Amino acid sequence: MRVVVGDDAVILREGLARLLQEAGFEVVGVAADAEELLELVDRSEPDVAIVDIRMPPTHTDEGLRAAKAIREAHPTIGILVLSQHVHARYAIELLSGGTDGVGYLLKERVADLDELSASVRRVGQGGSVLDPAVVSQLVGRRRQADNPLEQLTDREREVLALMAEGRSNKAIGERLFVSEHTVEKHIKNIFGTLQLPLSPDDHRRVLAVVTYLDSE
Amino acid sequence: MRAKLVLLISAAIAAGIGATWLAAHAGAQRPTEPGPLLTALVGASLIGCGLASWRARPDNRLGPVMVLTGFVWFAGLLSEATSAPLYTLGVAIEYVFLCGFIYIVLSFPSGRLRTPLDKSIVALAIAGTGLQVVAMLFGSGSGLRCGGGCGDNLIQVFHDNGLALALLSLQRVLGAILTLTAVGLLTYRWLKATRPERREVTWVLLAGNATLLALTVTVVDDLLGNPLNSGPAKVWFLTLALVPIAVLATFVRRRLARGSVAGLVVRLGAPTAPADLRAALARALGDPSLELAYWFPAEARYVTPDGRPVHKPGADSGRGSTVVERDGTPIAMLLHDPALEYNSGLVQSVCAAAGLALENERLQAELRARLVELGASRGRIVEATDAERRRIERNLHDGTQQRLVSIAMSLGLLESKLAPDQAQAAPIVREARTALTLALEELRELTQGIHPTLLVERGLPVALDELCRRAGLPAHLNVALDVRLPDQVETAAYYFASEAVSNAVKHSHGSEIRVDVSYDGRILTVEIADDGIGGAAIGPGSGLRGLADRVEALGGQFTVSSPPGRGTRLEAEIPCA
Asked: pLDDT tier at B569 (50, 70, 90 boundaries)?
């Protein structure tokens, strides 16, 4: 899989490139700011672009804007945005343009090489990734007692969170040590309780779940 | 002084009797001559009013100038004398009094010629009277001004009566141009003058302009061979006599104006508000534009009644100023119309009468100035704190966090490189990685608390939305704000809400929180209410004190309503000027 990396901190840019190469990705280029990154993407047409959210010149959300620009110009290129902050708002802004091939991860997740390469791969294959910290902020929010979310069981809540992270039924089953069939049953209950239309597509349901959590 | 006065009066009476006698015994009366009655009237008016003005305003030149003009007027009557030397002298200085008259009307009320135009007019008038002497070199007798029976012209050198008459006509034309210019100039000044200035010059201006116009008619009439007979000349001598009276009347009226000081003292007897004091002084001085400034010793400068700094007006600012002192130290400064500077006596009397009230006001103004300064320094402290927070957050983000992430990457890499047989090392690396992840998480929480980046990047509504999502209680946000506000306002509002929400979560024992934000184009209102136990109060060391400081530093208002058992409601109103 061919990837590019955009990060203004050289230590992270190079480190990340090395890490990805180690994990078997082909790093076709690195960029130090958004402009350079957009050129690089145009030129090299990678499978995935990994983007730091905070880059020059203003060090605010350049990465997020670059991600949106890449999505518009190259809808098939997967984008993984890295952030040092848990900003649910940014994650939702990113996903609201479509969840296919989009991810939002905290920077520190790069410490787990297996998890990182799984995320890059998932985004590259058109799936989505939402950082567990963001998901737990959405799911873990305190709500009124009569809110439907409060009626979910603990296990259902766990399944909901993993679903929001962008994981497939199979991955959720492995995570919770239950069969895929059990996961499906939980999902059916969750969608029933929240009165969401059940979608067979793993990808689409992320958006449905996240939108639901956000609108609450 | 007294002896000088007696001498001057005696000399004036002698000169007056002499001139009047000459006027009465002139050989053949020419229509442009004043005649005995008007001779005595004009001279007496100039010298009498001149002496009285001199006494009323010893520092003003106009008094002596009027007296001198009076004597020159009498001396001009020597042109009626039969003695050759007296006649020659009389004719030579016959019109010099006109220079004095022009000087008086142009320099009133200060007694000084201020503009180059003023000076040019007076200089040309002197040159015009000089033409008389030049004409005398060429002509004599009836050619000059004598109906017959007068003395010999002792300085006649050539015999060319035609040239002498031409020179005299030139003198008349020059005179007409100068008088009309003076009328225009005086009228223009009057139109441009401020109200107190106008009141000051109106009488002299009316008398002066009437005289100048009558003089112009007389001169033109003379040029045309006196078709109007003696009418215009009589009018012009009569109005000329009025000018010194107008000068004196204005000077004396200033003295009367000091009577308004008595009214001021009565008004100041009642307790006054700052605006009332200003109004009372403005009324007493007849200057509605009057402003007050008070001495602020701590910073050695003047401040307005509400404590803002004031600068002493410069010479060309179009404003005058008078410093009021008590026991040698300044207490206040009056900023007034420059016309009042010609009447410093009135200003001083008013200041003396208002001294105590001004001193009281000064103390209050000083207090307000200190409050203004205190508010500003509070604002500076908050600003410095915010800047420092931004700096720390940035340093942590760009330095420490990046480095920790890079170490985490290295550990991840190391873990992947461990050979399967190094089973003992694997758990140690994993442990280090976990500890590092925790450290990063804590650092993230910390930097977020130090400076909310989302606030800067997305504005108050988004930052508050995120705040409410993270709150430990269900928090309902209702924001009516669709513009970005100044940084310090958004920051203050955010920290206020953040602190208030976390207080509610920690101490209220309530079940939900409401956050309401509204903006009316002027004031941002942030209200945080919970349904908890209430009983919160602002006290030293309480978190609420810090909130109040932040809001008040921006000139905002902070209110707490927390009746026991009925929840707590905190409200901040922050002006967005």
From this structure: very high
Which range of B113-127, B208-222, B298-312, B417-431 scores highest in mean pLDDT? It is: B113-127
Most B CBs within 10 Å: which of A108, A131, A136, as the mutation test of the B interface? A108
Whether residue B415 lies within 8 A of chain A, CB to CB, comes out as yes
| CATH code, residues B2-254 | 1.20.1070
- The CATH number that domain B453-575 falls under is 3.30.565.10
Query: Of B243, B171, B251, which is closest to residue B213 (Cα–Cα)?
Result: B243
Residue in B433, B469, B487 to test binding to A, most A beta-carbons within 10 Å: B469
What are the tens digits of pLDDT across the range B519-556? 999 999 999 999 989 888 776 667 778 888 888 888 88
Residues of B in contact with A143 (CB under 8 A): 474
Say yes or no for a CB contact (<8 Å) between B437 and A116.
no
For chain B, the first-to-last Cα distance in angstroms comes to 65
CB–CB of B454 and A89 under 8 A? Answer: yes
B505 touching chain A per CB within 8 A: no
Condensed to tens digits (0 to 9), the pLDDT of residues B410-447 reads: 888 888 888 777 778 888 888 998 899 899 989 988 88
Measured from the Cβ of residue B14, the count of other Cβ atoms closer than 10 Å reads 11
User: Is B471–A142 a contact, with Cβ atoms under 8 angstroms apart?
Assistant: yes
Using alpha carbons, list the distances in angstroms from residue B470 to A195, A206, B120, B457. 25, 21, 84, 18
Contact: A108, B413; criterion CB under 8 Å: no
Gap between the Cα atoms of A139 and A132, Å rounded: 10
Place of tokens 């009276």: B245
> In the numeric block, which tokens belong to residue A138?
């959405």
pLDDT digits (tens, 9 = 90+) for B351-372: 777 777 888 888 888 888 888 8
Q: Is pLDDT at B513 greater than 70 in this prediction?
A: yes
Q: Verify whether the Cβ–Cβ distance A111 to B397 is below 8 Å.
A: no
Among A115, A195, A205, A129, which residue's Cα sits nearest to residue A160? A205
Inter-chain touch B402–A12, beta carbons under 8 Å: yes
Pairing of strands B291-296, A128-130: unpaired
Taking only the tens place, the pLDDT of each residue in B142-201 is 445 554 455 677 777 777 777 878 888 888 888 888 888 988 988 888 888 877 777 778
- Judge if ipTM > 0.90: no
Domains and CATH numbers, chain A: 2-130 (3.40.50.2300), 136-215 (1.10.10.10)
State the nearest Cα–Cα gap between A181 and chain B, in angstroms: 32
Domain ranges of chain B: 2-254, 262-383, 453-575
- Chain B residue with CA closest to A86: the answer is B444
- C-alpha B513/C-alpha B534 separation (Å) is 13
DSSP string, B490-537: HHHHHHHHHHHHHHHHHHS--S-EEEEEEE-SSEEEEEEEE-S-----
Predicted confidence at residue B531, as pLDDT, reads 92
Residue A42 in contact with residue A35, Cβ under 8 Å? no
Show Cβ contacts of residue B14 under 8 Å, excluding neighbours closer than 6 positions: none
Q: What is the C-alpha to C-alpha distance for residues B283 and B281, in angstroms, rounded to an integer?
A: 5
B-chain residues within 8 Å CB-CB of A84?
A: 397, 401, 405, 444, 447
Contact residues, chain A, for B433 at CB < 8 Å: 111-112
CB B304 within 8 A of CB B290: no
Mutant choice from A84, A131, A134, A144 vs B, greatest count of B C-beta within 10 A: A84
- In chain A, whose CA is at the least distance from the CA of B417? A22
* The CATH number fitting domain B262-383, selected from 3.30.450, 3.40.50, 3.30.70, 3.30.420: 3.30.450
